[in-house]
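=== RUN LOG ===
request id: a7f3
mode: sequence -> structure
chains: 1
length: 183
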Amino acid sequence: MKTLLSLETPQFYLRKPLRDPIRTPTILPTIIKNQKQNQNQNQNQPSSTWKLQANAKGFASKPPATVKENAANKNNNNDDEQVPQVVFERMITRILVSVGVPLATGLALLHLFGVAKEQNMWDVPLWLPFLTTFITFGASALGIAYGTLSASWDPEKKGSVLGFEEAQRNWVEMWKEENDGQW
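=== RESULT ===
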């Protein structure tokens, strides 16, 4: 019984620091020879820049594509239609509103529940903040899809304020394009 009622504090185990430092990519200076710069400058003074030297093994058999090659490949594989800038801005605005309003509402309700509990104004049940968080943050996540679908995809039409008609029309259009691609 005396061993169970010991008043000694347990000794903490502190491990030794690691002997091997954590490996990080190293940055080494490299010399880039540019013909135009060499013609304008002295031939004996090449320009030097800092370049990340990563020696990853990788799976690729050829070197990574440059930005110009990626742009050329992107232009060649242009199967999808471009979204007009007016429609894109309309979608972004609707997405920001349909995500931001529920998110701000959820954060405000959490803050109000916290203040009410701290000030002893109302003993907030534990399930209520969980429920409001679930509903408001879930609505915020669904707001991305709704913001895209509720915008008018026609550049000439502005659409309604809430976008119910546009969402119904665009939902059918989206699935029609999906089904046409399968057959």
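=== NOTES ===
The chain has five helices and two strands.
The radius of gyration is 30 Å.
=== END ===
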